[in-house]
Amino acid sequence: MDPCKVDLGVDLGKALAKRSNSVAVSPPRRLTHTDTLGNFSDVSNSLRAKLVDDVHEDAVSPVELDHGQTGHVYALEAGGQKIAVFKPVDGEKFHRKSLDAGKGAVREEAVYLVDRLTGSQAGVPVTSRASIQVDGHTLEGSVQAFVMDVQGFIEDYGIPRKLEEAVAFIPQADAESIALLDMRVFNMDRHPGNLLLLKKAKPHGLGPIDHGCCLPPWWCLGEAIFEAWISWPQLQTPPSSDAFSLARAAHAKLALTCRMVAEAGLDPSAVVTLRLCTIFVYIGIVEMAIPIGKLAALMLRDDCADPQELSWLEERVLAAAKEHGGKLSVQANDRGDPEVRIEDFGDALEVEPFIQDLELRFRQDLKAFRQDTPESHGEDAPIQSW
Ligand SMILES: Nc1ncnc2c1ncn2[C@@H]1O[C@H](COP(=O)(O)OP(=O)(O)OP(=O)(O)O)[C@@H](O)[C@H]1O
Ligand SMILES: [Mg+2]
């Protein structure tokens, strides 16, 4: 068995058959993530192990929640309380050309780790992977702690247009943390149904869920979706000191984060995406102080253009990759929109020179972007030296 997986020991088929009764589960099996990565790994492992232990308390009964892109989504209830969500990878129905079905659980766990290693600022619930027996067959999927105190989905609420009111509704640091997470993991599914509004009283909190469509391979950067937050007033002003700290921490922890997500099973081509997006965020925020909404827009294609054009980010990635062995071409797809194609799954790319080249391009071109759009940042926001 893959050492990164957890066997919950739940026979979901039998459990569903006996839905009205509680379901006996076998004794918990411990997480067996290898522990070679220091204290952060310890903390993260213990939280994920605790989630799995909790799922094994007394009795667990699965209740079907939804039938979305993932297929069936189940709430695991114990002691009369929903404690976790189980999403089988079997039957994933993602419509992202860049993502292999069946890898959603790895990406869910990887996004949790990305957030966890910078102090869980975005609040991604503890997420691990699980194998479950269903009618004698093994179902694999992700298991995620159930988010409590949910008021609804962001799509059901209007975020005030005035900055002061928006900040009273959702604190600036909370809005920024979600945005910076989505940018770092190149989220292709942050529509307002995948962001929960928490706490009855204002200011509310945010609960990010559904991270199976993040971290595509580095040559597939045409489908980012930041619809939930891209126009929020909190993100149109210069980044706060909290955003600076978070972008700096993400950069400082990048090597460790890459090792941990690779250990969790994320493909090397997706680890490159995490690297380049984290560096982009670091330069854009820490060095250039560009408002997060403006910086994020450089990662998006213009949906209104027909045909679309490559995004600012895609153009730089393509140019740098071609300089360093990437066998890429741009071809029009059925709708006439540009699609980056690769010949060899990226094997020929010289990764380190590519990243270094890209870093220089980001620095140079973001500086030009900042100068060309002076209204996009505070006049006196410093450009930091590096
Ligand atoms: N950690 C969680 N805590 C509480 N509720 C959750 C959690 N994860 C998922 N849900 C609930 O389950 C629903 C489906 O989950 P999710 O969005 O992750 O799955 P999906 O099948 O990929 O979704 P979609 O409907 O967007 O295609 C969510 O809309 C939400 O109501
Ligand atoms: Mg969803």
TrEMBL record:
Keywords: ATP-binding, Kinase, Nucleotide-binding, Transferase. The keyword Kinase applies. GO terms for molecular function: ATP binding; kinase activity. InterPro entries: P4KG1-8 (IPR044571). Belongs to the PI3/PI4-kinase family. Type II PI4K subfamily. This is Phosphatidylinositol 4-kinase gamma 5. The gene is PI4KG5.
